[in-house]
Amino acid sequence: PPKASSLFGHNAPALLPHRSSFRRIIRARSGHREFFRNLLAAGAVIAALAACSFQNKNEREADKITHAVMNNDLRPVQDDIAKGVTISRVKVAEWSDELSAQGKLLSIKETTADCQAGWHCFDAKFEKRAYVERMRLDENGKVVSWNFKMAIAPPKS
């Protein structure tokens, strides 16, 4: 290959950056990539935590139970259910069929409207319909009763 000095004149070495400059640039750019990768990961963690933080403890519990029922498997929540409470597999399968037919669970919000003392009531919104869920806890915070029904649709104007 021809010499750089013959291509660019007599001061060609002065025009080209030194090897250490290239190394510094490469290190700096890889550091920026790592910084932005870490920043993106931190943003994803913050977004995930923010999504969960808007639900209170009871809403999170109702959400876990609803998802477990929709998946036809109460094992993920079995430690949250009080000892002595038995729910048959047939009953869970029936509940699963009904709730899964409503599409994706969009939200669960605790409400006090029409809620009897000692119960926690929730408005559960699915893609196709809204439901009302009720949950009762024992003194240890374990679920002793949980049920749901379709919400009454508001009259159309």
Please write out the topology.
Elements: H1 4-8, H2 12-15, H3 19-53, H4 57-70, H5 89-100, E1 105-111, E2 120-126, E3 130-137, E4 143-150
Antiparallel strand pairs: 1-2, 2-3, 3-4
Q: Can you describe what's shown?
A:
9% of the residues are buried. A 4-stranded antiparallel sheet has the order 1-2-3-4, with helices on one face. The model has no long low-confidence stretch (mean pLDDT 83). Helices cover 45% and strands 19% of the residues. It starts with a helix and ends in a 7-residue tail after the last strand. It contains 5 helices and 4 strands. With 157 residues, the chain is of the alpha+beta class.
How is this structure best summarized?
The termini are far apart. It is built from five helices and four strands. It is elongated and about 80 Å long.
Main sheet overview: 4 strands, antiparallel
Order of helices and strands: HHHHHEEEE
Give the beta-strand count: 4
The Rg value, from CA coordinates, equals: 30 Å
Q: Which structural category fits the helices and strands?
A: alpha+beta
Mean pLDDT across all amino acids: 83
Strand content: 15-25%
The helix fraction, in percent, is 40-55%
**Count of helices?**
5
- Poorly predicted runs are none
Silhouette: elongated
Gap between N and C termini? 84 Å
Widest beta sheet: strand line-up: 1-2-3-4
